[in-house]
Amino acid sequence: MLDFSLVTEFIPFLLKASLMTLELSIVSIILGLLLGLVAALMKISTIKPLVWLADLYIWVIRGTPMLVQLFLVYFGLPQFGIELGPFTSAVIALGINSGAYIAEIYRGGMLSIPKGQTEAAQSLGMNYGTIMKRIILPQAFRVSIPALGNQAISMLKDSSLASLVTVSELMMVSQRFAATNYAFFEFYIVAALLYLLLTTIFSFVLNKIEYRLSVSDH
């Protein structure tokens, strides 16, 4: 028989672990947004080496499992004298992984902007940097919001992999308590509900942002 009363006394610890999951996800997403923007700008560049480098980054990251990337950062880098803590390693691995997907989202958003706007800006004497900053990127960001939201939610769920490098996030804490209390189903159900709550909050916030941006366009 299921006994969820076993979980009750551990709820504060699970909530604390949920905050760690949220923190890990947000920092990783921010890193992914920055890396994705750089990679997207490199990919639409007219400088071939930058395009090739961006293509290589996206190809390698999207073509290999995130778990392998996480292990390379946490277990592999120490072989070269680079030792990072579990949280930092997880942020770097998750950020690099999401950056490859976000780069393609950004690129699609940039390419969706009519070329006529760029030509009009050039005729007014704007340089490339000004055009990107004031015209292309703001519009591309608005167009990309739904896809970026989906990527953020995926990142939050994928953050559970950080438990494999001893980050005390929701999944690891749930596993530890489930094993010590022999209540695997109960703890994993509660963990699933907490993940569902976090993704729902993410969705709500992102929908609000998308709505505000759509209103501002009118």
UniProtKB/TrEMBL annotation:
Main subcellular location: membrane
TM regions (residue ranges): 20-44, 56-75, 87-106, 185-206
Gene Ontology biological process: amino acid transport
Domain of life where this protein originates: Bacteria
GO cellular component entries: ATP-binding cassette (ABC) transporter complex
Membrane topology summary: Multi-pass membrane protein
Gene Ontology molecular functions: transmembrane transporter activity
Every ABC transmembrane type-1 domain range: 18-206
Record has Glycosyltransferase as a keyword: no
Compartment list: Cell membrane
Signal peptide from the UniProt entry: none
Alphabetical UniProt keywords: Amino-acid transport, Cell membrane, Membrane, Transmembrane, Transmembrane helix, Transport
Family listed: Belongs to the binding-protein-dependent transport system permease family.
PANTHER family cross-referenced by the UniProt entry: L-CYSTINE TRANSPORT SYSTEM PERMEASE PROTEIN TCYL, MEMBRANE COMPONENT OF AMINO ACID ABC TRANSPORTER
NCBIfam families on file: HEQRo_perm_3TM (TIGR01726)
Protein name: Amino acid ABC transporter permease
